[in-house]
Design a protein that fits this description.
single chain; alpha/beta; Rossmann fold; 2 domains; 8-stranded mixed beta sheet; 16% strand; globular
Length: 371
């Protein structure tokens, strides 16, 4: 397999979100192995349609840059363009692109699609968007040669919902040095080991309100990273808490070095995400050595595993666990060590890169049998 296309993300080397982080790691790893990798992009330098970045072939196709139209408009032109090129296989991200897989099918290009989470259940989407994602998932299940689930639980949901099997290839994260510097957080006047941390987008399914309820009822410095669409009740609450000094709200932080230091030196990391598969921020926190407590969901259990580190959906349950963790530094040290070991053994980027190549090889095999 010498020529692979990646479609459906914002591009390379974008750092916007989970898909883009995945694409960034896969593209670099595959190019290092001598594979010709083409990534379809939504942005382009100086009006170019094709260029090379870090050995990765980047291609731009037109689309409408808006919240409601970006994914579908760029996805349509990505797939049309790719269908006229001689790729050995295509990796597609985002099930909304399931509508366009027949373009690749007609040209005999093997397709593997990353199913991510249960997008049509996310609270941030309206009724129409949920239907778009749900029907896109139906199309993905029908037209992809291979479905890739980054979570065993997600694979089970797709099997139960659509009657199809998936290949399990998890997300990845690095394991950081234990003596990571502290200069970036000290510049924010934060004391290493003396603050609780939340990193999340301000959407309902991430339960930031619940995290705030727990932190505000317990002693400690509270730091929140993340933003949403602006002027929501949650963001107004955070702004008020920031002004009162009860919470340090940093907003969106794109600086990975700062994020790594925040995770590595927090006294406790609260993870309230309730929808989706393997969450990238949870893996990054664990790989950085953050002592994690997480909302009790099947997705979080699959990653964290340890019964001691989960709280229920009520403030009382969270408050009890925060106090237990804060009163026992040894327990938190154990969680730090265990989290790093889990990421190193199960979520390495090297393993993820090979897993995706194996999935694409399987897609090629199935495509040849059915073609």
């Amino acid at each position: 397999m010498n020529r692979i296309a990646i479609l459906g993300s914002r591009g390379f080397p974008s750092t916007y979100g989970g898909y883009e982080t995945l694409v960034r790691h896969l593209a670099r790893a595959w190019v290092a192995r001598g594979i010709e990798v083409t990534v379809y992009c939504r942005e382009r330098p100086a009006g170019k349609r094709a260029w090379i970045e870090e050995g990765v072939r980047c291609r731009w196709t037109p689309g409408i840059e808006s919240v409601s139209a970006s994914t579908l408009s760029f996805g349509l032109t990505n797939h049309l363009d790719a269908s006229f090129r001689d790729f050995d296989a295509a990796l597609v991200v985002n099930v909304a692109n399931g509508y366009f897989l027949p373009f690749l099918n007609m040209r005999g290009i093997p397709v593997a699609i990353n199913t991510d989470g249960i997008e049509w259940e996310r609270g941030k989407w309206g009724t129409v968007a949920r239907k778009v994602f749900r029907n896109g998932a139906v199309a993905s299940a029908r037209f992809a040669d291979v479905l890739i689930a980054d979570s065993v639980v997600i694979a089970e949901i797709w099997r139960d919902t659509f009657g199809v099997d998936s290949e399990f290839v998890p997300y990845g994260a690095p394991v950081l040095d234990e003596d990571l510097p502290t200069d970036r957080i000290e510049a924010l006047r934060l004391e290493p080991g003396d603050y609780r941390l939340v990193v999340a987008r301000m959407v309902p399914e991430n339960n930031v309100d619940l995290s705030l309820d727990g932190m505000l009822e317990t002693d400690g410095v509270n730091v929140v990273v993340g933003a949403g669409k602006g002027d929501t009740p949650l963001e107004r609450r955070l702004a008020d808490l920031d002004r009162s000094g009860k919470v340090r709200w940093l907003g969106h932080v794109a600086d990975q070095e700062l994020l790594d230091q925040l995770w590595a030196h927090c006294s406790l990391y609260l993870h309230g995400h309730s929808v989706g598969g393997t969450n990238p921020s949870l893996l990054q926190a664990m790989g950085a050595g953050a002592p994690v407590i997480a909302l009790d969901t099947p997705f979080n259990r699959e990653v964290v595993g340890n019964d001691q580190q989960f709280y229920g959906g009520s403030p009382d349950s969270l408050i009890e666990l925060i106090r237990k963790a804060q009163d026992d530094p040894g327990l938190r040290d154990e969680w730090r060590r265990r989290g790093r070991e889990v990421v190193a053994s199960r979520y390495s980027w090297a393993g993820v890169s090979q897993g995706y190549l194996d999935a694409l090889a399987l897609a090629a095999e199935r495509n040849q049998r059915t073609g």
